[in-house]
Amino acid sequence: xxxxxxxxxxxxxxxxxxxxxxxxxxxxxxxVAVLVVxxxxxxxxxxxxxxxxxxxxxxxxxxxxxxxxASILALSTGPALAFDDQQVATRxxxxxxxxPEIAVAALYDSHGNLYAQFRRSGENFPATRxxxxxxxxxxxxxxxxxxxxxxxxxxxxxYLRAHYELGPRLLAYSGIIVLAAGLxxxxxxxxxxxxxxxxxxxxxxxxxxxxxxxSGRDYSTRARHSTHxxxxxxxxxxxxxLDEIQARTLAQERGNAALQESERLYRAIGESMxxxxxxxxxxxxxxxxxxxxxxxxxxxxxQYEDPSWNSVLDPDDRAALSAAWQECVRRGGTWYREHRVKxxxxxxxxxxxxxxxxxxxxxxxxxxxxxxxxIHRLKDTETQxxxxxxRKDEFLATLAHELRNPxxxxxxxxxxxxxxxxxxxxxxxxxxxxxxQVDRMALLLDDLLEVSRITRGRLELSRSNxxxxxxxxxxxxxxxxxxxxxxHTLRLDLPPEPVELNVDPLRxxxxxxxxxxxxxxxxxxxxxIELSAGVDGLSLTIAVRDSGIGLTAQSIPGLxxxxxxxxxxxxxxxxxxxxxxxxxxxxxxxxxxxxTVASQGLGHGSTFTLRFPxxxxxxPSSKRADTGLQPIAVSRAHARVLVVDxxxxxxxxxxxxxxxxxxxxxxxxxxxxxxDLSREQQPQVVIxxxxxxxxxxxxxxxxxxxxxxxxxxxxxxxxGWGQDADRIKTRDSGFNYHLTKPIDLDELERLIAxxxxxxxxxxxxxxxxx
Length: 770
Hints:
Elements: H1 3-22, H2 27-82, H3 86-94, E1 102-109, E2 114-119, E3 134-138, E4 141-150, E5 153-163, H4 167-216, H5 230-272, E6 277-281, E7 286-289, H6 291-297, H7 301-305, H8 315-331, E8 335-342, E9 348-359, E10 365-374, H9 376-418, H10 424-456, E11 464-467, H11 468-485, E12 489-493, E13 500-503, H12 505-521, E14 528-536, E15 539-546, H13 580-590, E16 594-598, E17 607-612, E18 616-617, E19 641-644, H14 648-660, E20 665-668, H15 671-681, E21 685-689, H16 697-705, E22 714-719, H17 724-733, E23 737-740, H18 745-758
Parallel strand pairs: 12-14, 19-20, 19-21, 21-22, 22-23
Antiparallel strand pairs: 1-2, 1-5, 3-4, 4-5, 6-7, 6-10, 8-9, 9-10, 11-13, 13-18, 14-15, 15-17, 16-17
């Protein structure tokens, strides 16, 4: 038997045993298995070594036994060999049949020749001559060779071969080992079962506590002490750890409850901020946005966290906004930016995004947090405030313009009246100019007061019965001066039957008169205006149509608001304060009626319609007003000065004063007349009003400067507009001087005198702008 091979096979079993031990589900089972396995292994190893020892001892006994047999046989066969008695030698060897173990016996002479022999069936003699002595074991066969020496002489050699049975002996040994191992394993198992509780009971207690915590999350349970060894320290450590965990758990639960309440509170606060809060990580990537914002732009939380979310930004803002945000992330600064996002409704919404960096204990930025505010109404309010501020500035400028316009002819007329050598007829003309302009200023102030009363609810109607003809006549008389001045044709289209109305005659005629004045102002000279009236049951409709400049669709919605202007008021002196139509709307509201406007666009005129509900009564008619127009008078003098102003009184009064100063003066009342007269007369001095019907004063100045003579002419702008922007515009148009109404005539005469003195040469250039 190979001892080394047996040990190797035993060692190969060890990994399998380890795997088997790991398969036990409990520590108790593992401990029992360990005790049983180790005991079994110990018994097995002991049995193996005892078997090896017994086997080796058994084989040694074979040699000893065979050596004894060989010695005895040598004593009996030696003399036979010495006396060459082969028969005796053969008989002695045959006696070995009594020994079943002996298989072969051979006697060789001194020359190595076989002298006598005994062998059992199936056995063979050695193949070679035997020259050595001693024993050799091969498996269960033992060979023994012994030399025969007689009286000091070697007579030959005796060879024996025996076979010994191992089975019975091994079986006996195996039985003994199995019996001993069984008894040992039984005793080990009993002892392990009795003693493992001492070791595993504390572990079982710890396992019990662990299972209760795992199943019920109950950190109040504790492990009980059953020993005072090292496991007691473990139990104390486990219980101490559970105390700390329980305390932390309670604190965490309270903290989680407070955190959840805080999250609900801050989420509610965030959602109340129109579009809520937003959060980014340290790299500037979105991590959270309130539902209100996500619903606005139609994104999910996951889509908002993707960098492609910025597709909802206004394309005009996208690049600049992205660059600004990257710079903010790079610098670690605060974020404050207005931008627009496209909502699910397809419209762009104004958003204010504001945020600050979040820093950890070391000061490093871990992200950004901020909020989105809906500033749509704020932007609308801002736009409205800007518009209101613009209208206020425009109103103040227009008011100054409207007040300067009548002051200019009044100032000129006063100076004209104070001049010597003026005829009584001219003095009467001057007084008429002053009276007309004072009336104009009174009407302007009346309109302001009327609007103020309507706005404050202080104006009340005084209804009475009045005929439609009387109402129209009063309105036409109010507008007659402007109609005559601009040589308009007025056509009346009234019902053939008398119409009696129950209205406030003063306020109704005031509303209609304002529409006629408005039509006259915004219709170029020689235009056509039509007033038509119609009755539908108890309701009256009056329409005023003109062939004037018309309206754009964009200008109509705010037309009846305070200080609204149809066109740039610098284009015509008669632009007014922008309160006339607001006054008309207020008066119609008081009557329970309405005013509307329609136009086919610029250059196609306008139609304003008044609707008086429930005011028609049967009543007498009256004579309709005469709407004839008076011719315009033009005075001329010697000076080569051209005065152009569509305010006839202002132009004529300045002409009279310049004529008294000895200038040769011609006059025009429109931009086109200015161009025609300037080409015809090539004046040295051109005094132009800016706010005239197209072409206005700026355009006239540019066209004059295109002519050779015009490059040397003195161009003086006379206007009610005196702001810096207005002066820059007159300079860019080619004017030399900008004078605001009412102009200082002494200053004007000084400018003309300086120019005439400096331009004694025909090629002298015009003076620089001042």
